[in-house]
Amino acid sequence: MGFLIISFFVCFIVGIVLANQCGVDHFEEYGSLTKYYLISYGEKSYDPIALLLYVCKSRCLHFVLLALSTFLFRKTFVLDLYGAWCGFTYGYFFVLTIGAFGSVGSLVALASIFPQVICYLMLFFGMRSRVTSKLQMKRSERVLEIVMLLLLFILGLLLEVYVNPWILQKVIRWM
Predict the structure, then answer these.
(1) pTM of this prediction?
(2) Distances (CA, A) of 78 to 67, 81, 82, 152, 161
């Protein structure tokens, strides 16, 4: 667990440094959450079905790969590597939203990952604890564990599609 936390924060700092080196212009040119996009997102309604399909497509690949590495290999390396990648991307994203929106950028960055991040973190640590646990589980307990992790994933998707846009719109309109 210590390696995961250290690698997350080291990569978070690397993301911050790299974002400061590249600058906001690079983000505006290549980033998907540009200032124009976020402001127009706050002013317009969105299609929840299209967003659900997009989020499912992008999150399901991550979930399936992490689940396969967890359930087949029973090693934490892939999960730790994913945690480090998340640290890097969050560090990069936080700096760029602050650069694009000023001091309110940190609030925009937090609003863009809340509340689904709670479910995704619980899912991530649930998968990780499954790998590190030495307990022998009955078949019914393993099935229940898999169902619980799947429900966390589905709840995270639903929060990301239906609750997060509402929160993000409120924050952007408040700016």
Answers:
(1) 0.78
(2) 10, 5, 6, 20, 27
